[in-house]
RNA sequence: CGGGGCGUAGCGCAGCUUGGUUAGCGCGCACGGUUUGGGUCCGUGAGGUCGGCGGUUCAAAUCCGCCCGCCCCGACCA
Protein backbone atom coordinates (compact mmCIF):
# COMPACT_ATOMS: atom_id res chain seq x y z
CA UNK A 1 0.00 0.00 0.00
CA UNK A 2 1.28 3.39 -0.87
CA UNK A 3 2.19 5.72 1.93
CA UNK A 4 -0.10 8.67 2.38
CA UNK A 5 1.41 10.04 5.50
CA UNK A 6 4.85 10.29 7.00
CA UNK A 7 4.81 7.75 9.84
CA UNK A 8 4.78 9.28 13.31
CA UNK A 9 7.86 7.35 14.30
CA UNK A 10 9.80 8.78 11.38
CA UNK A 11 9.02 12.46 11.94
CA UNK A 12 6.20 13.37 14.28
CA UNK A 13 6.30 17.02 13.39
CA UNK A 14 6.01 16.26 9.71
CA UNK A 15 3.21 13.80 10.38
CA UNK A 16 1.31 16.52 12.23
CA UNK A 17 1.63 19.10 9.48
CA UNK A 18 0.64 16.62 6.82
CA UNK A 19 -2.41 15.29 8.57
CA UNK A 20 -3.75 18.73 9.42
CA UNK A 21 -3.58 19.62 5.73
CA UNK A 22 -4.70 16.29 4.31
CA UNK A 23 -7.61 15.80 6.66
CA UNK A 24 -8.83 19.24 5.65
CA UNK A 25 -8.64 20.72 9.11
CA UNK A 26 -6.81 23.82 8.00
CA UNK A 27 -4.71 25.42 5.30
CA UNK A 28 -1.93 27.97 5.27
CA UNK A 29 -3.02 31.51 4.60
CA UNK A 30 -1.30 34.12 2.48
CA UNK A 31 -0.35 35.90 5.69
CA UNK A 32 2.59 34.43 7.49
CA UNK A 33 1.68 32.66 10.70
CA UNK A 34 -2.04 32.72 10.06
CA UNK A 35 -4.20 29.80 9.05
CA UNK A 36 -7.52 29.18 7.43
CA UNK A 37 -9.62 26.80 9.48
CA UNK A 38 -11.45 24.69 6.92
CA UNK A 39 -15.01 23.45 7.42
CA UNK A 40 -14.02 20.05 8.80
CA UNK A 41 -11.59 21.60 11.26
CA UNK A 42 -14.04 24.33 12.13
CA UNK A 43 -16.82 21.85 12.82
CA UNK A 44 -14.47 20.09 15.22
CA UNK A 45 -13.82 23.44 16.89
CA UNK A 46 -17.57 24.08 17.04
CA UNK A 47 -18.02 20.78 18.86
CA UNK A 48 -15.33 21.78 21.36
CA UNK A 49 -16.92 25.20 21.70
CA UNK A 50 -20.43 23.87 22.22
CA UNK A 51 -19.37 21.41 24.89
CA UNK A 52 -17.41 24.03 26.78
CA UNK A 53 -20.12 26.64 26.42
CA UNK A 54 -22.66 24.25 27.88
CA UNK A 55 -20.42 23.73 30.90
CA UNK A 56 -19.85 27.46 31.32
CA UNK A 57 -23.53 28.16 31.35
CA UNK A 58 -24.09 25.39 33.86
CA UNK A 59 -21.65 27.16 36.14
CA UNK A 60 -23.54 30.41 35.99
CA UNK A 61 -21.76 32.32 33.26
CA UNK A 62 -23.10 34.36 30.38
CA UNK A 63 -21.57 35.28 27.06
CA UNK A 64 -20.85 38.80 25.87
CA UNK A 65 -18.56 40.43 23.35
CA UNK A 66 -15.84 42.99 23.94
CA UNK A 67 -14.10 44.91 21.17
CA UNK A 68 -11.09 43.79 19.16
CA UNK A 69 -9.29 47.10 19.59
CA UNK A 70 -7.85 48.13 22.91
CA UNK A 71 -6.24 51.51 23.64
CA UNK A 72 -2.50 51.05 24.06
CA UNK A 73 -2.63 52.87 27.38
CA UNK A 74 -4.86 50.13 28.84
CA UNK A 75 -2.14 47.55 28.44
CA UNK A 76 0.31 49.85 30.18
CA UNK A 77 -1.80 50.10 33.32
CA UNK A 78 -0.60 46.75 34.65
CA UNK A 79 3.17 46.66 34.52
CA UNK A 80 3.70 42.89 34.45
CA UNK A 81 0.96 42.50 31.89
CA UNK A 82 2.44 44.96 29.42
CA UNK A 83 5.90 43.54 29.97
CA UNK A 84 4.65 40.09 29.08
CA UNK A 85 2.66 41.04 26.04
CA UNK A 86 4.39 44.01 24.43
CA UNK A 87 6.79 41.91 22.33
CA UNK A 88 3.91 40.21 20.60
CA UNK A 89 1.42 43.01 20.03
CA UNK A 90 -0.06 43.98 16.70
CA UNK A 91 -0.61 47.72 16.82
CA UNK A 92 -2.93 49.81 14.68
CA UNK A 93 -1.56 53.29 14.13
CA UNK A 94 -3.77 54.52 11.31
CA UNK A 95 -7.50 54.62 10.76
CA UNK A 96 -9.56 56.23 8.05
CA UNK A 97 -6.41 57.44 6.37
CA UNK A 98 -5.23 59.41 9.39
CA UNK A 99 -2.75 58.67 12.09
CA UNK A 100 -4.52 57.91 15.37
CA UNK A 101 -3.97 60.05 18.45
CA UNK A 102 -3.46 56.89 20.44
CA UNK A 103 -2.42 53.60 18.89
CA UNK A 104 -4.83 50.70 19.28
CA UNK A 105 -3.62 47.22 19.97
CA UNK A 106 -5.38 44.24 18.51
CA UNK A 107 -6.30 42.28 21.63
CA UNK A 108 -3.80 39.65 22.67
CA UNK A 109 -6.22 38.92 25.53
CA UNK A 110 -8.92 41.07 27.08
CA UNK A 111 -8.14 41.49 30.78
CA UNK A 112 -7.59 45.21 30.35
CA UNK A 113 -10.63 46.23 28.39
CA UNK A 114 -12.85 43.96 30.45
CA UNK A 115 -11.28 45.34 33.62
CA UNK A 116 -12.15 48.81 32.40
CA UNK A 117 -15.74 47.84 31.77
CA UNK A 118 -16.04 45.93 35.04
CA UNK A 119 -15.01 49.01 36.97
CA UNK A 120 -17.94 50.80 35.37
CA UNK A 121 -20.41 48.01 35.97
CA UNK A 122 -19.49 47.02 39.49
CA UNK A 123 -20.70 49.33 42.23
CA UNK A 124 -21.92 47.12 45.00
CA UNK A 125 -21.31 43.71 46.48
CA UNK A 126 -24.72 42.93 45.01
CA UNK A 127 -23.15 43.17 41.54
CA UNK A 128 -20.76 40.36 42.42
CA UNK A 129 -19.75 37.87 41.37
CA UNK A 130 -19.67 39.02 37.77
CA UNK A 131 -19.09 36.06 35.47
CA UNK A 132 -18.72 36.81 31.77
CA UNK A 133 -17.31 34.73 28.99
CA UNK A 134 -16.52 35.70 25.44
CA UNK A 135 -15.75 33.67 22.35
CA UNK A 136 -13.34 35.68 20.28
CA UNK A 137 -10.24 35.87 18.16
CA UNK A 138 -6.99 37.23 19.55
CA UNK A 139 -3.68 38.14 17.95
CA UNK A 140 -0.21 37.47 19.27
CA UNK A 141 2.73 38.17 17.01
CA UNK A 142 4.64 34.95 17.52
CA UNK A 143 8.08 34.38 16.08
CA UNK A 144 7.38 30.84 15.11
CA UNK A 145 3.99 29.41 14.36
CA UNK A 146 2.41 26.00 13.81
CA UNK A 147 -1.04 25.13 12.60
CA UNK A 148 -3.47 25.17 15.56
CA UNK A 149 -0.68 24.99 18.14
CA UNK A 150 0.54 28.51 17.76
CA UNK A 151 -0.82 30.84 15.13
CA UNK A 152 -0.66 34.60 14.94
CA UNK A 153 -4.43 34.85 15.17
CA UNK A 154 -6.36 32.21 17.04
CA UNK A 155 -9.84 31.58 18.36
CA UNK A 156 -10.57 31.01 22.00
CA UNK A 157 -12.86 31.61 24.86
CA UNK A 158 -11.80 33.87 27.65
CA UNK A 159 -13.86 34.05 30.75
CA UNK A 160 -13.36 36.89 33.17
CA UNK A 161 -14.80 36.97 36.63
CA UNK A 162 -14.85 39.44 39.51
CA UNK A 163 -15.50 38.44 43.11
CA UNK A 164 -15.93 40.03 46.52
CA UNK A 165 -13.43 37.88 48.30
CA UNK A 166 -10.09 36.26 47.65
CA UNK A 167 -11.42 32.86 48.72
CA UNK A 168 -14.24 33.03 46.23
CA UNK A 169 -11.92 34.08 43.39
CA UNK A 170 -9.45 31.32 44.16
CA UNK A 171 -12.30 28.85 44.36
CA UNK A 172 -13.54 30.02 40.97
CA UNK A 173 -10.08 29.66 39.45
CA UNK A 174 -9.78 26.10 40.66
CA UNK A 175 -13.36 25.18 39.90
CA UNK A 176 -12.87 26.11 36.28
CA UNK A 177 -9.69 24.13 36.04
CA UNK A 178 -11.92 21.27 37.08
CA UNK A 179 -14.37 22.11 34.30
CA UNK A 180 -11.54 22.03 31.75
CA UNK A 181 -10.28 18.77 33.14
CA UNK A 182 -13.74 17.28 32.94
CA UNK A 183 -14.12 18.44 29.35
CA UNK A 184 -10.77 17.02 28.31
CA UNK A 185 -11.39 13.66 29.91
CA UNK A 186 -15.04 13.16 29.00
CA UNK A 187 -15.29 14.82 25.59
CA UNK A 188 -11.80 15.04 24.12
CA UNK A 189 -10.68 11.77 25.71
CA UNK A 190 -7.44 13.46 26.67
CA UNK A 191 -5.93 12.65 30.05
CA UNK A 192 -4.57 15.82 31.60
CA UNK A 193 -2.54 16.74 34.63
CA UNK A 194 -4.09 19.70 36.41
CA UNK A 195 -1.76 21.80 38.45
CA UNK A 196 -0.23 25.14 39.26
CA UNK A 197 2.19 26.96 36.98
CA UNK A 198 5.65 27.70 38.27
CA UNK A 199 6.80 31.29 38.79
CA UNK A 200 8.43 31.69 35.41
CA UNK A 201 5.58 30.08 33.49
CA UNK A 202 2.67 32.00 34.91
CA UNK A 203 0.50 34.51 33.10
CA UNK A 204 1.73 38.10 32.84
CA UNK A 205 -0.07 39.91 35.63
CA UNK A 206 -1.41 36.89 37.51
CA UNK A 207 -0.83 36.02 41.15
CA UNK A 208 -1.10 32.35 40.30
CA UNK A 209 -1.75 30.42 37.09
CA UNK A 210 -3.20 26.98 36.83
CA UNK A 211 -2.96 24.68 33.86
CA UNK A 212 -3.96 21.38 32.44
CA UNK A 213 -1.03 19.66 30.78
CA UNK A 214 -1.49 16.90 28.25
CA UNK A 215 1.08 14.55 26.80
CA UNK A 216 1.23 14.31 23.04
CA UNK A 217 2.20 11.08 21.29
CA UNK A 218 5.78 12.27 20.93
CA UNK A 219 6.05 12.65 24.69
CA UNK A 220 5.97 16.43 24.64
CA UNK A 221 3.67 18.50 26.80
CA UNK A 222 0.89 20.68 25.50
CA UNK A 223 -0.63 23.27 27.79
CA UNK A 224 -4.25 22.78 26.87
CA UNK A 225 -6.03 25.28 29.06
CA UNK A 226 -5.18 27.85 31.68
CA UNK A 227 -6.93 29.46 34.60
CA UNK A 228 -5.50 32.49 36.35
CA UNK A 229 -6.04 33.95 39.77
CA UNK A 230 -5.34 37.62 39.19
CA UNK A 231 -5.57 38.72 42.81
CA UNK A 232 -6.29 42.43 42.95
CA UNK A 233 -3.68 43.34 40.33
CA UNK A 234 -6.18 44.20 37.63
CA UNK A 235 -8.69 45.56 40.12
CA UNK A 236 -6.05 48.05 41.22
CA UNK A 237 -5.02 48.91 37.68
CA UNK A 238 -8.59 49.43 36.51
CA UNK A 239 -10.15 50.56 39.76
CA UNK A 240 -12.65 47.74 40.12
CA UNK A 241 -14.20 48.66 43.45
CA UNK A 242 -17.42 47.84 45.21
CA UNK A 243 -19.22 48.93 48.33
CA UNK A 244 -19.54 46.11 50.82
CA UNK A 245 -22.37 45.44 53.28
CA UNK A 246 -20.79 47.88 55.73
CA UNK A 247 -20.70 50.67 53.14
CA UNK A 248 -16.93 50.44 52.74
CA UNK A 249 -15.09 50.58 49.40
CA UNK A 250 -13.32 47.32 48.60
CA UNK A 251 -11.19 46.16 45.72
CA UNK A 252 -12.58 43.21 43.80
CA UNK A 253 -10.69 39.99 43.15
CA UNK A 254 -10.56 38.80 39.56
CA UNK A 255 -9.85 35.67 37.59
CA UNK A 256 -9.50 34.81 33.94
CA UNK A 257 -9.14 31.62 32.02
CA UNK A 258 -9.19 30.31 28.50
CA UNK A 259 -9.09 27.46 26.05
CA UNK A 260 -8.10 28.00 22.43
CA UNK A 261 -8.09 26.38 19.01
CA UNK A 262 -4.90 24.76 20.26
CA UNK A 263 -7.28 22.14 21.66
CA UNK A 264 -7.75 20.92 18.10
CA UNK A 265 -4.02 20.27 17.92
CA UNK A 266 -4.20 18.44 21.24
CA UNK A 267 -6.90 16.13 19.89
CA UNK A 268 -4.87 15.46 16.74
CA UNK A 269 -1.62 14.72 18.59
CA UNK A 270 -3.18 12.70 21.40
CA UNK A 271 -5.12 10.19 19.35
CA UNK A 272 -3.83 10.29 15.76
CA UNK A 273 -1.94 7.38 14.22
CA UNK A 274 -0.16 6.51 10.99
CA UNK A 275 -3.49 6.22 9.14
CA UNK A 276 -4.47 9.74 10.14
CA UNK A 277 -6.78 11.33 12.65
CA UNK A 278 -8.57 9.41 15.35
CA UNK A 279 -11.34 11.63 16.63
CA UNK A 280 -13.12 11.12 19.92
CA UNK A 281 -16.76 10.27 19.12
CA UNK A 282 -18.06 13.06 21.34
CA UNK A 283 -16.28 15.69 19.27
CA UNK A 284 -16.13 14.09 15.82
CA UNK A 285 -17.95 16.17 13.19
CA UNK A 286 -18.99 12.89 11.61
CA UNK A 287 -19.42 10.00 14.04
CA UNK A 288 -20.50 7.33 11.60
CA UNK A 289 -19.87 7.11 7.89
CA UNK A 290 -21.78 4.69 5.70
CA UNK A 291 -19.96 3.26 2.69
CA UNK A 292 -22.21 1.48 0.19
CA UNK A 293 -20.74 -1.32 -1.88
CA UNK A 294 -21.94 -2.79 -5.12
CA UNK A 295 -20.44 -4.96 -7.84
CA UNK A 296 -22.89 -4.75 -10.64
CA UNK A 297 -24.85 -1.78 -11.67
CA UNK A 298 -28.12 -3.53 -10.96
CA UNK A 299 -27.10 -3.96 -7.31
CA UNK A 300 -26.53 -0.27 -6.95
CA UNK A 301 -30.11 0.79 -6.43
CA UNK A 302 -30.90 -1.70 -3.68
CA UNK A 303 -27.66 -1.04 -1.81
CA UNK A 304 -28.07 2.71 -1.95
CA UNK A 305 -31.66 2.43 -0.81
CA UNK A 306 -30.66 0.30 2.19
CA UNK A 307 -27.80 2.68 2.98
CA UNK A 308 -30.16 5.63 2.91
CA UNK A 309 -32.54 3.90 5.26
CA UNK A 310 -29.76 3.23 7.72
CA UNK A 311 -28.69 6.82 7.51
CA UNK A 312 -32.24 7.93 8.09
CA UNK A 313 -32.59 5.74 11.16
CA UNK A 314 -29.24 6.71 12.63
CA UNK A 315 -29.44 10.42 11.95
CA UNK A 316 -31.84 10.82 14.85
CA UNK A 317 -29.20 9.48 17.21
CA UNK A 318 -25.76 10.31 15.87
CA UNK A 319 -23.93 12.50 13.37
CA UNK A 320 -23.93 10.28 10.31
CA UNK A 321 -22.85 10.69 6.71
CA UNK A 322 -23.56 8.54 3.69
CA UNK A 323 -20.65 8.52 1.26
CA UNK A 324 -22.42 7.97 -2.03
CA UNK A 325 -19.71 9.51 -4.17
CA UNK A 326 -19.42 7.85 -7.55
CA UNK A 327 -16.14 6.71 -8.98
CA UNK A 328 -14.39 5.91 -5.74
CA UNK A 329 -13.91 2.32 -4.71
CA UNK A 330 -15.01 1.26 -1.22
CA UNK A 331 -11.38 0.68 -0.28
CA UNK A 332 -10.50 4.18 -1.27
CA UNK A 333 -13.32 5.54 0.85
CA UNK A 334 -12.29 3.43 3.84
CA UNK A 335 -8.87 4.98 3.77
CA UNK A 336 -10.23 8.43 3.19
CA UNK A 337 -12.54 8.36 6.21
CA UNK A 338 -9.95 6.69 8.36
CA UNK A 339 -7.60 9.51 7.56
CA UNK A 340 -10.29 11.94 8.67
CA UNK A 341 -10.70 10.09 11.92
CA UNK A 342 -14.37 9.09 11.72
CA UNK A 343 -14.89 6.76 14.71
CA UNK A 344 -17.20 4.20 13.10
CA UNK A 345 -17.73 3.06 9.52
CA UNK A 346 -20.67 1.03 8.33
CA UNK A 347 -20.07 -1.05 5.21
CA UNK A 348 -23.12 -2.31 3.40
CA UNK A 349 -23.21 -4.39 0.24
CA UNK A 350 -25.38 -6.97 -1.56
CA UNK A 351 -24.32 -9.81 0.75
CA UNK A 352 -25.33 -7.79 3.78
CA UNK A 353 -28.71 -6.99 2.36
CA UNK A 354 -29.43 -10.66 1.84
CA UNK A 355 -28.39 -11.52 5.38
CA UNK A 356 -29.75 -8.28 6.88
CA UNK A 357 -26.40 -7.45 8.41
CA UNK A 358 -24.01 -4.56 8.24
CA UNK A 359 -20.27 -4.56 8.83
CA UNK A 360 -19.17 -2.01 11.39
CA UNK A 361 -15.51 -1.02 11.56
CA UNK A 362 -13.89 0.81 14.46
CA UNK A 363 -11.35 3.48 13.60
CA UNK A 364 -9.38 2.90 16.78
CA UNK A 365 -8.76 -0.78 15.97
CA UNK A 366 -7.14 -1.18 12.55
CA UNK A 367 -7.99 -3.90 10.06
CA UNK A 368 -10.20 -6.94 10.52
CA UNK A 369 -9.92 -6.93 14.30
CA UNK A 370 -11.94 -3.78 14.44
CA UNK A 371 -14.77 -5.09 12.28
CA UNK A 372 -17.92 -6.80 13.39
CA UNK A 373 -21.18 -7.82 11.79
CA UNK A 374 -24.30 -6.56 13.42
CA UNK A 375 -27.90 -7.27 12.46
CA UNK A 376 -29.52 -4.41 10.63
CA UNK A 377 -32.41 -4.43 13.06
CA UNK A 378 -30.09 -3.58 15.95
CA UNK A 379 -28.29 -0.55 14.64
CA UNK A 380 -30.15 1.98 16.76
CA UNK A 381 -29.30 0.03 19.85
CA UNK A 382 -25.74 -0.89 19.01
CA UNK A 383 -24.19 2.06 17.21
CA UNK A 384 -24.50 4.70 19.96
CA UNK A 385 -23.14 2.19 22.45
CA UNK A 386 -20.22 1.39 20.16
CA UNK A 387 -19.40 5.07 19.93
CA UNK A 388 -19.18 5.17 23.71
CA UNK A 389 -16.96 2.12 23.63
CA UNK A 390 -14.62 3.84 21.20
CA UNK A 391 -14.67 7.01 23.31
CA UNK A 392 -13.66 5.04 26.40
CA UNK A 393 -11.10 2.97 24.54
CA UNK A 394 -9.18 5.88 23.09
CA UNK A 395 -9.19 7.63 26.45
CA UNK A 396 -7.81 4.53 28.11
CA UNK A 397 -5.22 4.14 25.40
CA UNK A 398 -4.10 7.73 25.76
CA UNK A 399 -4.03 7.41 29.53
CA UNK A 400 -1.98 4.22 29.41
CA UNK A 401 0.47 5.91 27.09
CA UNK A 402 0.69 8.97 29.32
CA UNK A 403 1.07 6.96 32.52
CA UNK A 404 3.68 4.78 30.89
CA UNK A 405 5.72 7.85 30.04
CA UNK A 406 5.66 9.69 33.33
CA UNK A 407 8.60 8.65 35.45
CA UNK A 408 9.30 9.40 39.08
CA UNK A 409 12.91 10.46 39.26
CA UNK A 410 15.26 11.21 42.09
CA UNK A 411 18.37 12.45 40.36
CA UNK A 412 18.99 15.13 37.78
CA UNK A 413 20.45 12.54 35.41
CA UNK A 414 17.28 10.48 35.66
CA UNK A 415 15.27 13.59 34.94
CA UNK A 416 17.30 14.30 31.82
CA UNK A 417 16.69 10.77 30.64
CA UNK A 418 12.98 10.73 31.42
CA UNK A 419 12.23 13.91 29.49
CA UNK A 420 13.61 12.38 26.31
CA UNK A 421 10.48 10.26 26.02
CA UNK A 422 7.94 11.88 28.32
CA UNK A 423 7.51 13.60 31.66
CA UNK A 424 9.58 13.43 34.79
CA UNK A 425 8.04 13.85 38.23
CA UNK A 426 10.43 15.01 40.90
CA UNK A 427 10.69 16.86 44.18
CA UNK A 428 11.21 20.51 43.47
CA UNK A 429 12.18 23.51 45.57
CA UNK A 430 13.86 25.66 42.94
CA UNK A 431 13.22 29.33 42.23
CA UNK A 432 12.88 31.22 38.97
CA UNK A 433 16.62 31.16 38.29
CA UNK A 434 16.86 27.45 38.94
CA UNK A 435 14.06 26.90 36.45
CA UNK A 436 15.90 28.87 33.81
CA UNK A 437 19.04 26.87 34.37
CA UNK A 438 17.16 23.57 34.14
CA UNK A 439 15.61 24.76 30.91
CA UNK A 440 18.96 25.80 29.45
CA UNK A 441 20.54 22.52 30.44
CA UNK A 442 17.76 20.09 29.53
CA UNK A 443 15.31 21.92 27.21
CA UNK A 444 12.61 20.87 29.65
CA UNK A 445 10.49 23.13 31.83
CA UNK A 446 8.35 22.76 34.88
CA UNK A 447 5.02 21.98 33.26
CA UNK A 448 3.14 22.26 36.50
CA UNK A 449 3.06 21.54 40.19
CA UNK A 450 0.35 18.88 39.98
CA UNK A 451 -2.70 19.02 42.22
CA UNK A 452 -2.11 15.41 43.00
CA UNK A 453 0.80 15.40 45.45
CA UNK A 454 2.36 12.39 47.12
CA UNK A 455 2.48 14.20 50.46
CA UNK A 456 5.41 14.25 52.81
CA UNK A 457 8.69 15.78 51.72
CA UNK A 458 11.82 15.00 49.76
CA UNK A 459 14.97 16.41 48.27
CA UNK A 460 14.81 18.83 45.37
CA UNK A 461 16.04 17.11 42.23
CA UNK A 462 18.05 20.17 41.20
CA UNK A 463 19.00 22.23 44.23
CA UNK A 464 19.21 19.44 46.77
CA UNK A 465 17.17 21.56 49.15
CA UNK A 466 14.33 20.09 51.18
CA UNK A 467 11.16 20.10 49.08
CA UNK A 468 7.50 19.72 49.98
CA UNK A 469 6.11 19.50 46.46
CA UNK A 470 6.72 17.48 43.34
CA UNK A 471 6.76 19.06 39.90
CA UNK A 472 6.17 17.66 36.43
CA UNK A 473 8.99 18.34 33.97
CA UNK A 474 8.79 17.93 30.23
CA UNK A 475 9.61 19.40 26.88
CA UNK A 476 6.77 21.58 25.78
CA UNK A 477 5.09 22.76 22.62
C1' C B 1 17.06 37.15 14.54
C1' G B 2 20.72 32.67 13.89
C1' G B 3 21.22 27.69 11.36
C1' G B 4 19.22 24.35 7.49
C1' G B 5 16.03 23.26 3.31
C1' C B 6 12.95 24.72 -0.64
C1' G B 7 10.47 27.81 -4.65
C1' U B 8 9.09 24.52 -12.17
C1' A B 9 0.66 22.95 -13.64
C1' G B 10 -4.03 22.40 -7.95
C1' C B 11 -0.43 18.88 -5.06
C1' G B 12 4.32 16.05 -5.07
C1' C B 13 8.58 16.19 -7.96
C1' A B 14 12.40 15.57 -12.37
C1' G B 15 15.17 18.74 -15.55
C1' C B 16 19.83 23.00 -13.62
C1' U B 17 26.11 20.09 -12.63
C1' U B 18 27.87 20.70 -18.64
C1' G B 19 22.81 27.07 -21.46
C1' G B 20 20.33 25.12 -27.35
C1' U B 21 13.52 21.58 -30.43
C1' U B 22 7.19 22.75 -28.55
C1' A B 23 9.71 22.25 -20.33
C1' G B 24 8.53 16.72 -18.56
C1' C B 25 6.59 12.81 -14.97
C1' G B 26 3.19 10.96 -11.02
C1' C B 27 -1.18 12.24 -8.44
C1' G B 28 -5.34 15.24 -8.76
C1' C B 29 -8.99 17.73 -12.10
C1' A B 30 -12.77 17.49 -16.69
C1' C B 31 -15.20 14.16 -20.23
C1' G B 32 -16.30 8.96 -22.03
C1' G B 33 -16.16 3.95 -20.96
C1' U B 34 -14.90 0.06 -17.46
C1' U B 35 -15.02 -1.01 -12.40
C1' U B 36 -16.34 -1.01 -6.98
C1' G B 37 -16.19 -6.32 -0.10
C1' G B 38 -9.25 -2.41 1.82
C1' G B 39 -6.22 3.17 -2.08
C1' U B 40 -9.63 0.00 -10.11
C1' C B 41 -8.25 0.12 -15.26
C1' C B 42 -8.23 2.28 -20.29
C1' G B 43 -8.76 6.43 -23.47
C1' U B 44 -9.23 11.71 -24.45
C1' G B 45 -8.42 16.56 -22.58
C1' A B 46 -7.66 21.20 -19.81
C1' G B 47 -3.98 23.33 -16.98
C1' G B 48 2.88 26.82 -16.85
C1' U B 49 4.80 34.90 -16.34
C1' C B 50 9.92 27.80 -14.41
C1' G B 51 9.04 32.99 -7.06
C1' G B 52 10.43 38.42 -8.65
C1' C B 53 13.83 42.02 -10.70
C1' G B 54 18.30 42.84 -13.04
C1' G B 55 22.85 41.03 -15.49
C1' U B 56 25.97 37.70 -18.85
C1' U B 57 24.87 35.47 -23.78
C1' C B 58 23.07 34.87 -30.56
C1' A B 59 20.19 31.98 -26.89
C1' A B 60 18.64 31.38 -19.63
C1' A B 61 14.22 27.00 -15.78
C1' U B 62 19.68 26.14 -16.31
C1' C B 63 25.24 30.77 -15.21
C1' C B 64 25.91 35.51 -11.92
C1' G B 65 23.84 39.40 -8.48
C1' C B 66 20.03 41.39 -5.54
C1' C B 67 15.26 40.84 -3.51
C1' C B 68 10.73 38.19 -1.93
C1' G B 69 8.18 34.10 0.07
C1' C B 70 7.44 29.38 2.47
C1' C B 71 8.78 25.08 5.56
C1' C B 72 11.99 22.79 9.37
C1' C B 73 15.44 23.36 13.71
C1' G B 74 16.80 27.02 17.83
C1' A B 75 15.96 31.65 21.12
C1' C B 76 10.13 33.73 22.92
C1' C B 77 5.06 32.05 23.74
C1' A B 78 -1.71 29.63 24.79
Descriptive notes:
Strand 18 and strand 19 (371-375) form a beta hairpin. 43% of the residues are buried. The radius of gyration is 25 Å and the shape is globular. It folds into three domains: 12-271, Bira Bifunctional Protein, Domain 2 (BirA Bifunctional Protein, domain 2, 2-Layer Sandwich), CATH 3.30.930; 288-386, Rossmann fold, CATH 3.40.50.800; 406-474, Translation Initiation Factor IF3. It has helices at 12-22, 39-58, 72-75, 79-85, 111-121, 166-186, 233-238, 262-271, 297-314, 330-339, 350-355, 379-404, 412-418, 432-442; strands spanning 26-28, 35-37, 62-63, 69-71, 90-95, 98-106, 130-139, 153-163, 192-196, 208-215, 221-229, 241-243, 249-251, 253-260, 288-292, 320-322, 344-348, 357-362, 371-375, 406-408, 423-428, 445-450, 458-459, 466-467, 469-474. The protein contains 14 helices and 25 strands. By secondary structure, the chain is α+β, with helices and mostly antiparallel strands. The model has no long low-confidence stretch (mean pLDDT 92). It starts with 11 loop residues before the first helix and ends with a strand. The strands form six sheets. The chain has an eleven-stranded mixed β-sheet, sandwiched between helices. The longest helix has 26 residues, at 379-404. The structure holds one RNA strand of 78 nucleotides.
Amino acid sequence: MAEFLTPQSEDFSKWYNEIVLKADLADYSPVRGCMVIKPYGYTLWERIRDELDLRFKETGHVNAYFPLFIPMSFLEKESEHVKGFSPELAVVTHGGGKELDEPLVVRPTSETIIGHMYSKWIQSYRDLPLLINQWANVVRWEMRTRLFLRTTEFLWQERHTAHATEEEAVEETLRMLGVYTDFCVKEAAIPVIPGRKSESEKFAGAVASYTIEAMMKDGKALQSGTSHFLGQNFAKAFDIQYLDEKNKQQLAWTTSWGVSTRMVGAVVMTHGDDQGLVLPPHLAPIQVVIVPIWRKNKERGAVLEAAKQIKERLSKLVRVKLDDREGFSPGWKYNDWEMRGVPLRIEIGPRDIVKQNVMVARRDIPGRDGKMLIPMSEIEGRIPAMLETVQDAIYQKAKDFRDGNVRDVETYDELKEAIQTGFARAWWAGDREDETRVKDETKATVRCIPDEQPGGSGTCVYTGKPATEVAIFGKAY
